[in-house]
Design goal:
Structural class of chain A: mainly alpha
Strand content of chain A: under 5%
Strand content of chain B: under 5%
Order of helices and strands of chain B: HHHHH
Radius of gyration of chain B: 17 Å
Largest interface: A-B, 48 and 43 residues
Number of helices of chain A: 8
Radius of gyration of chain A: 20 Å
Number of helices of chain B: 5
Helix content of chain A: over 70%
Shape of chain A: flat
Distance between the termini of chain A: 22 Å
Oligomer: heterodimer
Largest sheet of chain A: none
Structural class of chain B: mainly alpha
Helix content of chain B: over 70%
Number of strands of chain B: 0
Chain lengths: 160, 128
């Protein structure tokens, strides 16, 4: 049984259901920010630390265990754990198609970091890409984070 | 010739695992339910228990792990500048389509436009 797709339904339901089930709030925007920052900085820190450590070969795979003692790798790993838990949390209350553009925003962060922290030259195509992603994210952030599902409907009724 | 087929297959596999991992994880967390509400009722241990007792969570995790190891394999055979752009842009599109047809999310015009605009941005970043 499919739900009707009328936009009215989406507008009406949040009022009937408990508020926390359908709405974004300051905390949830924070969680999305942690998804972006955690994955971007986590990857950057781990890759920086791994470069300091040098190549890991199959015969010396146990070097991987020592990698965590490198402060960059440790901090990066911590950030990646933060990313993963925030990501799981976000998936529980927002659509994947809502979160995806937000996570792509990490590319923007990487670009800005490269320009202003590492003083790299950014080619025009990359600025254009950054602009498009920012525009897309701004566009989607103003829309609803949820869509109506029978599964969620049933849960909302059960929890109410 | 034959090694091109292998490389193409590897990238396809990578896209499949990456998209599959995200889609399965989204479905798993949907089954777990709103974790903010859950935390209010059962605390953080309750949230952890709810996630760890969802079988789909492990399927998603397995898929993500497979994606990670295929990435390592792909990087040992192909250039970073080939793998990352190809995989990130194609994965974005397949995940968007998966959200619509597998997760049955309601992609209104706003979502489609935003998704395709961001895809355009990802492709542009992939080009340089």
């Amino acid at each position: 049984m499919r739900q009707a797709r009328s936009p009215d339904l989406i507008l009406v339901l949040p009022m009937k259901a408990p508020r926390h089930i359908y709405s974004m709030n300051a905390w949830r925007y924070m969680v999305l920010l942690m998804v972006v920052v955690g994955s971007t900085l986590g990857d950057a820190f781990v890759s920086r630390g791994m470069k300091e450590l040098g190549k890991i070969t199959f015969s010396r795979w146990d070097d991987l265990l020592l990698a965590v003692t490198n402060p960059w790798v440790a901090l990066g790993t911590l950030l990646l754990v933060l990313f993963f838990t925030s990501y799981l949390s976000a998936l529980s209350w927002a659509d994947l198609s809502y979160i995806m553009p937000a996570t792509a925003f990490g590319n923007v962060l990487t670009g800005l970091l490269a320009r202003f922290a590492l003083h790299e030259r950014i080619p025009v195509t990359r600025w254009a890409g950054i602009l498009l992603i920012t525009a897309g994210v701004g566009f989607i952030a103003r829309g609803p984070s949820w869509t109506v599902h029978e599964e969620r409907e049933a849960r909302a009724e059960r929890d109410a | 010739m034959s090694h091109h087929v292998l490389e193409f297959g590897l990238i396809l596999l990578l896209v499949l695992f990456n998209s599959g991992g995200d889609l399965l994880m989204a479905r798993a967390m949907r089954r777990v339910g709103d974790v903010d509400a859950l935390r209010k009722n059962a605390g953080i241990p309750g949230v952890i228990k709810a996630v760890l007792t969802t079988p789909l969570f492990y399927a998603a995790l397995l898929c993500m792990a497979a994606g990670y190891f295929s990435l390592l394999t792909a990087l040992s055979r192909l250039d970073l500048s080939v793998v990352i752009p190809a995989v990130s842009s194609v994965t974005y599109l397949t995940t968007l389509l998966g959200a619509r047809f597998f997760l049955r999310e309601h992609l209104d015009r706003r979502r489609w436009v935003a998704g395709l605009v961001v895809l355009g941005g990802v492709v542009l970043l992939a080009l340089d």
